[in-house]
TrEMBL record:
CDD domains: WHTH_GntR. It comes from Curtobacterium caseinilyticum. Keywords: DNA-binding, Transcription, Transcription regulation. SMART domains: HTH_GNTR. This is GntR family transcriptional regulator. The keyword DNA-binding applies. The lineage of its organism: Bacteria, Bacillati, Actinomycetota, Actinomycetes, Micrococcales. Residues 14-81 form the HTH gntR-type domain. The keyword NAD does not apply. InterPro entries: TF_FadR/GntR_C, Tscrpt_reg_HTH_GntR, WH-like_DNA-bd_sf, WH_DNA-bd_sf.
């Protein structure tokens, strides 16, 4: 689809390249800029209302995240996420989440535990309703844990992983792990007890359950497709 016409207001608190990066990230993740779509400098300049320099700087960051592909003198385009990339990204994302939980939970004060409880309640609500907003809840939970980990390197490193995970999820639109709700009470109890090891174990258990469910779901889909081909 064509690059939409809009504009970016520069923020005194952010570098222009960061404003552009946020705008392009959002457009890729919501499908405005679709997988495989070529990114034209002139169209991006017209849309974002900035010069080529911050756009190129933002694109370089998107390449680092794996969201954009570039080949000199040939193309710059939105990447097309694969199943293997999905699996790799979420394995690493849950690894980050487990580590962040182990570090963050013992440091939480009462206000932070209350905030965490609200995030978990929201996740349960969306899981019970099978609302795809559950994906955003999981992202928010991981961001909360990373932010409270007390480790700046983890905070910086997680940026690319989180954005990568959001992107590759586009290639697996049918999959949402509703059963994540079964671990929320245990996680909340671990947080109330400031037990980082227990919280990390809950995340690890969720990760295993998600991987097993995804394998089962893919096998079922493959069998269904084979049956459909056989009867066609």
């Amino acid at each position: 689809m064509p690059v939409p016409k809009s504009s970016v207001e520069s923020s005194p608190r952010k570098l222009l390249r960061d404003v552009v990066l946020e705008k392009m990230l959002a457009a890729i993740q919501d499908g405005t800029l679709q997988a495989g779509e070529r990114l034209n400098d002139d169209e991006l300049v017209a849309w974002l209302g900035v010069s080529r320099t911050p756009i190129r700087e933002a694109i370089a960051k998107l390449v680092d995240f794996g969201l954009v592909e570039m080949e000199a003198n040939r193309y710059t385009r939105v990447a097309s996420p694969t199943r293997e990339q999905y699996d790799d990204a979420f394995q690493l994302l849950f690894g980050f989440a487990e580590l962040a939980a182990r570090w963050a939970v013992p440091k939480l004060d009462d206000a932070a535990v209350k905030q965490l409880g609200k995030l978990l309640d929201q996740a349960r609500k969306h899981a019970d309703a099978e609302d795809r907003a559950l994906n955003d809840d999981i992202d928010a939970l991981i961001a909360f844990l990373v932010a409270h980990s007390g480790n700046e390197l983890l905070v910086k490193t997680s940026e690319g992983i989180v954005n990568r995970a959001k992107f590759v999820r586009i290639g697996q639109p049918e999959f949402v792990f509703w059963d994540v709700k079964h671990g929320l009470d245990s996680f909340h109890a671990a947080a109330k007890g400031r037990d980082g090891e227990a919280a990390g174990a809950v995340i690890r258990s969720m990760s295993r359950a998600m991987a097993e469910h995804l394998t089962e779901m893919r096998a079922a889909n493959a069998n269904a497709d084979a049956d459909a081909d056989a009867t066609a």
